Amino acid sequence: MRVDFFWPGRTKRPELRALEDFYLGRIRLLADGRVVVTPAARGLDEREKARILEIEAQGLEKRWKDDYIICLSDEGQDMTSAEFARFLAARDREGRRLGFVVGGFLGLAERILRRADLRLAVSKMTLSHELCRVVLLEQVYRSLTILQGRRYAK
Amino acid sequence: MRVDFFWPGRTKRPELRALEDFYLGRIRLLADGRVVVTPAARGLDEREKARILEIEAQGLEKRWKDDYIICLSDEGQDMTSAEFARFLAARDREGRRLGFVVGGFLGLAERILRRADLRLAVSKMTLSHELCRVVLLEQVYRSLTILQGRRYAK
User: Whose CA is closest to A76, among A8, A109, A123?
Assistant: First the structure.
């Protein structure tokens, strides 16, 4: 299975960054996974939200071909871990490369959300974007262990 | 607002432990919050699940009086962050002390889940219990900032 994780700008909080690396390492034992850090808008005031999101959208789009794009959003569809594992397996059988997208501090441009093949909610609650990245990686790792019938901590 | 977090056994992964401390520190700027680590069953094989959960249940119950107990469970009720903030505010107006509970590796005894005033799902997906603790603390912190009209990272 080929799974890419796209996000504008590196995860800054060191503990979350370390967890990202940890779960990515686990994922790579079971699948072809990588994190692709796309350009984050710099030097703009937060009030210029539309411009920031547009810059970050362009950086994301450049990296996609015909990937099956899944944007994380608290307004997206929710799934149990078992449903999520089946969902990943089905896309893999179709030969699609999966691309997960988590926005930056201000989220994602509407255009990117519309482009998504799926909007996925790991929580109905709004998580910080950096914590959301970690939860996503943990769930993808969990799914891979479910699919391969391995034991993984609850 | 008085908010207690109960869990059997310390959180082991250092990054998650550091995040726990970080969010607890933030919570304590806005409310009377503490983490109470109750005894974890030791030296038992994982196959003795019922016994482990019973030992941990006793350790938890000892610490509660008439607290409003909220057990985290992926089969619990889900809420948006705004709904969760209103829920906390309502309990606080009733003068109830809130006690959140996240189980250990094997979860919580059925008896504890039945005792709960509410079962809350921060995700329909099954998170590792240590990651669940961090997500919970982050959400309580987020709620407190919502209630106090403060700005907090998305």
Answer: A123
Residue A154 maps to a domain: no
pTM (predicted TM-score): 0.95
Q: How many CA atoms lie within 13 A of A74 on its CB side?
A: 18
Ranges under pLDDT 70 in chain B: 153-154
Looking at residue B126, its pLDDT comes to 96
Looking up residue A111, the CATH number of its domain turns out to be: 3.40.1280.10
Residue A138 sits at the chain B interface (C-beta within 8 Å): yes
Asked if the C-beta of B21 comes within 8 angstroms of chain A's C-beta atoms, the answer is no
Give the model confidence (pLDDT) of B44-60 as tens digits.
998 899 999 999 999 99
Distance in angstroms (rounded) separating the CA atoms of residues A33 and A1: 8
Q: B129 and A15: CB-CB below 8 Å?
A: no
Domain range for A118: 2-147
Q: Which residues, numbered 63 to 122 in chain A, qualify as contacts with chain B under a Cβ-Cβ cut-off of 8 Å?
A: 74, 78-81, 84, 105-107, 122
A134 vs B: CB within 8 A: yes
Is this complex scored with an ipTM above 0.90? Answer: yes
Total count of domains within chain A:
1
Q: Which residues in chain A are closer than 8 Å to B19, comparing Cβ atoms?
A: 13, 15-16
Asked, for residue B20, whether it belongs to a domain, the answer is yes
Residue B122 counted as domain residue? yes
Residue A57 included in any domain: yes
Strand-by-strand arrangement of the A118-120 sheet: A32-38, A2-8, A98-101, A68-77, A118-120
